[in-house]
């Protein structure tokens, strides 16, 4: 069973915490982690890009000039792809990019990403994260104390003061324990998580 230090917002170690090996100590499955990231990025695509092919562009019903003896290359339509205003070759059309992962695969990918952060010692547990006011400078100071300037900050429930204090900080994102994603865990250098959020994650994935 992995044991991690628990810090306060001043960056001082105040306790120790045992992590559930069923969530934070599994064998890392890189294939499913990769699949989870690809699936999330694919599902975020709108798929609404569209352009017209030569058959859909208006005009161009007649030859621009006769076939021979003009000095020009022969042309059949002013709406061919090589003409300004012509159609697009292999034009993109609206399509569905969505992919699916079954529940078991999602769980394994999530556990693998969490385990990787613990093994890399990039998993920082806070005893509590309570702010008196919305203040970005205070939040920056907290992250500096924890040596985590680029971090994914996870709380058990949405805290408006935490969210508003962190939203303008580059390379920092706040989320709650039931909405974390494999992509976010991998994107940010460190995970800063409140102690009760760890327990909430263990209840879901253990």
Structural summary, described in words:
The chain is of the alpha/beta class. It folds into 2 domains: about 5-45 and about 100-205, 3-Layer(aba) Sandwich (Ribosomal Protein L4, Chain: A), CATH 3.40.1370.10; about 45-95, no CATH class. It is built from 7 helices and 6 strands; from the N terminus they run ββαααβαβαβαβα. It has a 6-stranded mixed beta sheet with strand order 2-1-3-6-4-5. About 25% of the residues are buried. The model has no long low-confidence stretch (mean pLDDT about 90).
User: Structural class given helices, strands, pairing?
Assistant: alpha/beta
Q: Please indicate the count of domains.
A: 2
Query: Strands of the biggest beta sheet: in what spatial order?
Result: 2-1-3-6-4-5
- CATH class type of the largest domain: Alpha Beta
Strand content: 5-15%
Form type: elongated
Average pLDDT over all residues: 92
Main sheet, how many strands, which sense, barrel? 6 strands, mixed
- Report low-confidence residues grouped into runs of 5 or more: none
CATH superfamily of the largest domain: Ribosomal protein L4/L1
Write a short abstract of this structure.
With 206 residues, this protein is α/β, with parallel strands linked by helices. It is 33% helix and 15% strand.
Keywords:
206 residues; 33% helix; 15% strand; six-stranded mixed sheet; single chain; elongated; 2 domains; 6 strands; alpha/beta; Ribosomal Protein L4, Chain: A
Chain-wise SSE layout:
Layout: E1 3-7, E2 13-18, H1 21-24, H2 30-43, H3 103-119, E3 123-126, H4 136-145, E4 151-155, H5 160-166, E5 172-176, H6 182-187, E6 190-194, H7 195-205
Parallel strand pairs: 1-3, 3-6, 4-5, 4-6
Antiparallel strand pairs: 1-2
Helix pairs in contact: 2-3, 4-5
